[in-house]
Amino acid sequence: MFCYRLNEPTDVSPSALSTALWIMAAKWEMEDRLSAESARHIFLRALRFHPQSPKVYQEYFRMELMNAEKQRKEKEEIEKAKMDLSADGYSDSILGGELARVVYKSAIQTIKGAEFHVSLLSIAKMFDFTEDLQKEILNDLQTFHAQDPFTWDFMARQELAVDSLPSSEYISKQTKAQDLARKEERCNAIYETALESVQTESMWSLYVSFCLERYKRKTNCKELKQKRHNLVLGAMRKAHEANMLSEEKYTEWISQLVDLGQNDVAVEIGEAATKRYKESVRMWQTRAEMLMALEREDVTPVIEEAFKHVKTKDSLPLWMLMVEWSEKSNTDVTTETLYKKAIIVPDPAVARVMKERYLEWAYRTQGYKNARKVFNSLHERRPISEEFFRKMILIEKQQEQSKMQNLREYYERALREFGSTSPGLWLDYIREELSHAEGKPQNCGAIHWRAMKMLQGDDVEHFVSKYTLLQTGHL
Fold it and tell me: Which of 36, 38, 264, 330 sits most deeply, having the most CB atoms within 10 A of its CB?
């Protein structure tokens, strides 16, 4: 139905149809109308309008293989019934998947890349009559994409899929482990061959990822576990020496070294990692967290060194880490000095968050009076956030005898900064006057009037709708 409707003058232009619709139409022709010819025509039309679509090529390739499989089964049934095949028109080229091969050849000439190539091989593997086609695809992959790391990764992992010994030959778990170890050795040999010609960070990353995957797999065989352990540490060390280890893999390596109790090596690698990735917040954070876990004394100097290299706008995680460390390890005086440094960082986003943290810390460690002192020292020092004021409001409300006079002060100061953009702040202020023991409901009218004057656009509508719900007791 879909393909006929394309010819109606009132319908959408075929070029405007998505690849998903073309594929859906072709599948309908193939599966519901049992017409491979119509499905083929739809795929060919789809490729006119979407010539660079990997998905269309993949599904077209799959369809031709399905058609070949269907005809092979039909022919087999006819042969079993000892019927005459001469009039049925079964083509040897179709039965052998030749049309699928034509689609494959066209696809790899149009769509480049090893991953797409492998996707066609994966489709071919679903059909048991495609052994020759699979060999051709595999040979083409190695010929056309010899410098693509994905090709080598795929070829190496193929060794794991090689048929194992028959189950009857597994005399013991030890024998099974030895067979698996031999497979992994072959994988490793392919990766090492790859690294001789494809010396890129991507190739090293795929190799290390493979080693990590195998290391993390459970096994009861101590020899296999030790072999995997040696392999992953060796791969990381080689990648590091080649200056090809990624940030992510450095993090994994440091974690493994700490778990193994190789603390001095972990410290050494952490330092090397931050030299390689000087501007990486994540790398400095990993190094600092490792030093904290090992209770080393040079945590603060390392983070201070990080601030020299990391962009100020990216430094928030390091400030958070540093104050958390200081809260646990240093005196309140030292920690407060650190907070005072953090709140004057030139980046507004960092300064705002650190002011919020400073206020929380002051209340948590030294009580309400000190929190109010910090608030009074900061509420007019921009940049400042609405959340900073809300935290002070919450602190006040947590007191055994909270004072409405203080709450009004905090709300008023917050509204001077955010009253034109925060309908929620006005609503909370009104709710406070209505619910607090010392509140004055008669003030709500004036607060409402001020809100209507300050808010604009959608914020006014939001405020009015919520205020109505508040008046009717639904908020």
Answer: 36
